[in-house]
Design goal:
The protein is α+β, with helices and mostly antiparallel strands. The chain folds into two domains: about 10-15 and about 75-170, PH-domain like (Roll), CATH 2.30.29; about 20-70. It contains five helices and nine strands. α1 runs antiparallel to α3 (about 45-70).
C-alpha cells in the first residue's frame, strides 16, 4: 500500500461543440446513401455508378460520424499510478500511461490543432502522440523514450501539479 487515497486524484475534460457540425454532415452523408439505396427507380438504370455513390456516401458518412463523435470530448484522470485518457462518449480510443513511464509533465497554455496536424488522435514520428479536441490549454507528458504525449484538457495546470507531486514521490 502506498498510502495514497484510492480513486482519482484529479479529473478533467475538454469538449469541442463544433465537432457536432461535422457529425451532422456525416449523418447527412449516411442519410443520402440510404435514400439512394432505397430509391428503386434509380436501380433500374446505371447500376454501377449508383452502387458506387451509395457505398461512397455510407462510407464517408460513417467515417465522419465516428471521427467526430470519438473526438467531441476527452477526459483525463490522474491517480497515484497512472494518467488515463479516454476519448468520446464511449471512451475509445483510450490510453493509460503509468507514472513510472513519465519523466516530466508540463503545462501548455496554448495548443492548436495546427501543432499536431489537426484534431483527433495524432502521431508525429519525431514528436510523439497527442489527443487534440480543441485549441487551448493542455498538458504534455515527456515519456521515458523522450517522446511527448500531449492532450488538450481544461484545468491542465492543476493536473500538472498533481502529476509532478507523484513523480517526486516515485523518485524517492
Amino acid at each position: 500500500m502506498t498510502g495514497h487515497p484510492p480513486g482519482p486524484l484529479w479529473t478533467g475534460r475538454a469538449t469541442n461543440p463544433m465537432q457536432w457540425l461535422l457529425a451532422a454532415a456525416g449523418a447527412a452523408c449516411v442519410a443520402l446513401g440510404v435514400e439512394l439505396a432505397v430509391d428503386n427507380a434509380a436501380w433500374s438504370t446505371d447500376f454501377v455508378p449508383l452502387l458506387m455513390a451509395v457505398t461512397g456516401c455510407l462510407a464517408a458518412g460513417l467515417l465522419m460520424l465516428y471521427g467526430t463523435l470519438a473526438f467531441v470530448n476527452v477526459s483525463v484522470t490522474v491517480d497515484a499510478q497512472a494518467v488515463m485518457v479516454r476519448c468520446g462518449h464511449i471512451g475509445v480510443p483510450r490510453r493509460t500511461i503509468p507514472l513510472t513511464e513519465v519523466t516530466a509533465a508540463d503545462f501548455l497554455p496554448r495548443i492548436t490543432p495546427q501543432h499536431w496536424g489537426g484534431w483527433g488522435y495524432r502521431w508525429r514520428p519525431q514528436k510523439g502522440t497527442a489527443v487534440i479536441v480543441r485549441r487551448g490549454e493542455g498538458l504534455a507528458l515527456t515519456l521515458g523514450d523522450g517522446k511527448l504525449f500531449t492532450v488538450t484538457v481544461d484545468d491542465a495546470e492543476n493536473a500538472v501539479r498533481v502529476i509532478r507531486t507523484h513523480l517526486r514521490a516515485l523518485a524517492r
